[in-house]
Design goal:
This protein has about 425 residues and is of the alpha+beta class. The protein contains 16 helices and seven strands. Helix 6 packs across helix 9 and helix 11 runs antiparallel to helix 12.
């Protein structure tokens, strides 16, 4: 690992998708088919991403898959290459066996007047560093592709007949044999990485200004109650009651369609003060754990909509507070079978607060291919145990004040617990 003076891996955590024993069997024979298969392997179209896929056995069975953002500064490339190679190869060894090879994808759209071919040329040194880093661990890179501007290039294949210098066009979305096979196998592509992250990103403009004012106002009222042991339990009960009320509101007002318009609809359903009260109340570890129980059946969909909407309301100085709703959004996504979105949401939670323990645990478990049913059963049992006193939850840990006004979240951990 690096010291403080060395370049570091990008701030988003590597997301590793383990290959399960029941993965559909789809044969890929060329760089074109590999490029076409990438979004189906990840579950989304990667943007500004370095993706690595482990390959095992003589038949070339795909194993774990790692995705991380491409570092903006070339000075970081060598260190990033070493870390991602070690992460994927060591992780594959822990899960069953060292890879026999690796396939690398560099996905980045042109900037300004830049062409796709120029992107390929600019990223070539990064591809070479990854090949060297994998080779140093005795695992060869079997193929390295650059995807940009609707075309792909191979850094490995010298044959102009299949990999010309000007690149080859990617198949139109949903039109290839790979798309048909993936659809038949039940593999879904849930939009682009940029789209999924956008649904969880903070609001902007005048609404963001109003939201931050609401957070300031509500924090001034709630923090004294949270610091007072006599009223802390009251705040927790109010937080859960409000969350259930808003979930009911969302259930009774489903959006007409998915995507950004659905998010606009959900944003309109939440008042600023309501959202601020929930964001601050969820900083309490025990209240957050109770909210995590809304992970299945008819509760899952409105809960996910609510957690996404709250993550978008964590504005400005309250950016770290997004760790709680982002982690809950990641957990519900994982619990309901959407692992790609879960890994993205949990990665964003760790970007908001790298020390958020619940996000760390879920991110690691999701990456390691752990079955979420074990955690679901624990939460079900806890809910059954607590049901007789469900209306009076014991509130917990972190005073969620605004940094610089009512104390930082780091200071809150020292005085009242970890909050994770």
């Amino acid at each position: 690992m690096t010291n403080n003076n060395e370049p570091r891996i990008p701030s988003d955590r590597p997301s590793i998708s383990p290959a399960g024993t029941t993965d559909p069997q789809i044969t890929l024979r060329s760089p074109a088919e590999l490029a076409d298969a990438l979004p189906y392997m990840l579950g989304f179209h990667p943007t500004d991403s370095l993706v690595m896929v482990a390959v095992h056995g003589e038949g070339g069975r795909f194993g774990g898959r790692l995705r991380v953002g491409i570092p903006a500064t070339p000075a970081e490339w060598e260190d990033t290459a070493r870390q991602v190679a070690d992460c994927l190869i060591r992780g594959s060894e822990r899960r069953g066996g060292k890879p026999d090879g690796i396939v690398v994808f560099l996905c980045q759209e042109p900037r300004g007047e830049e062409s796709g071919q120029r992107v390929m040329t600019r990223l070539r040194p990064l591809a070479q560093r990854i090949r060297l880093a994998c080779g140093a661990l005795d695992v060869p890179v079997l193929e390295a592709l650059c995807l940009s501007a609707g075309r792909f290039w191979s850094y490995v294949c010298p044959d102009e007949r299949c990999c010309p210098a000007e690149g080859s066009p990617l198949a139109a979305v949903g039109t290839s044999v790979m798309a048909a096979a993936a659809t038949f196998a039940g593999l879904q592509v849930r939009g682009s990485l940029k789209d999924i992250e956008g649904r969880l990103a903070p609001l902007r403009g005048e609404v963001a200004v109003d939201m931050e004012r609401a957070l300031d106002r509500v924090a001034a009222a709630l923090v004294p109650k949270i610091l007072d042991g006599a009223t802390r339990e009251e705040v927790g009960a109010e937080t859960l009651t409000l969350a259930r009320t808003l979930m009911t509101r969302m259930t009774l007002a489903p959006p007409a369609e998915g995507g950004p318009h659905a998010d606009d609809w959900d944003d309109a359903l939440l008042g600023h003060d309501e959202a601020a009260s929930l964001i601050l109340g969820l900083q309490d570890r025990e209240i957050r754990d109770i909210a995590a129980e809304w992970m299945e059946d008819e509760e899952a969909a409105p809960a996910l909509r609510l957690w996404r909407a709250l993550a978008r309301r964590c504005i400005g100085a309250y950016g770290e507070h997004a760790a709680a709703p982002l982690t809950l959004a990641g957990w519900v996504s994982w619990s309901t079978g959407d692992e790609p979105t879960a890994r993205i949401a949990l990665g964003l939670a760790l970007r908001a607060d790298a020390e958020y323990r619940f996000a760390q645990l879920l991110h690691h478990a999701c990456n390691e291919g752990v079955d979420p049913e074990g955690l679901r059963e624990c939460l079900r049992e806890e809910r059954r145990r607590r049901e007789p006193r469900r209306g009076r939850p014991k509130a917990g840990t972190r005073p969620p004040g605004r940094p610089g006004r009512t104390g930082t979240r780091r200071e809150s951990r020292r005085t009242t617990g970890s909050g994770q």
